[in-house]
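Follow-up to my post from last week.
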Amino acid sequence: AQSVSQHNHHVILSEAASLELGCNYSYGGTVNLFWYVQYPGQHLQLLLKYFSGDPLVKGIKGFEAEFIKSKFSFNLRKPSVQWSDTAEYFCAVNDRAGNNRKLIWGLGTSLAVNP
Amino acid sequence: DTGVSQDPRHKITKRGQNVTFRCDPISEHNRLYWYRQTLGQGPEFLTYFQNEAQLEKSRLLSDRFSAERPKGSFSTLEIQRTEQGDSAMYLCASSSGTGENIQYFGAGTRLSVL
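User reply:
Got it. Predicted complex:
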């Protein structure tokens, strides 16, 4: 069965620090990969996605992620975080060959950025 | 607002009562998904509709849960005889079913069963 593992459950950083959140997935087929963000009191929003092509993808607000197929990983990075990046971050995958495209989610990482 | 909307945002109920939630997807999105999220967890897939057809249900969806999408537009999720373990955030998402098929989420309905 598909599964997603996020390594860091709680991260606390100071502004301007660099961020890397780990995500590994378990699935034998071809997947689409996503990072969603949930700001306090708001709904889940798509941060970035990888479907195919260049394994380094750029998303909104200066975030990027790198797909490393050999490591089944899709880590999220940002060179310099801001207080406004305080949020919950979720990694998700779905089966590209599957018909329903349901998302399988990690547990999430809570990021707190101190001003 | 043209996003996914869910109603109500919060629901408090007593154990054993029935509750119903509504989801209005983005207009013309033919795919609709329900997920459940508990504290400290990621969302878990519950069920999926393509137009009015319910094509997949998770094993998480016990017999007390039923979902409908009668006209292929809005959807309802009903929980009968609620239990304390049903307390969670219920999320709805919709997608176009074409191209990248990105799922867009509503704000969710938070259910508290006392």
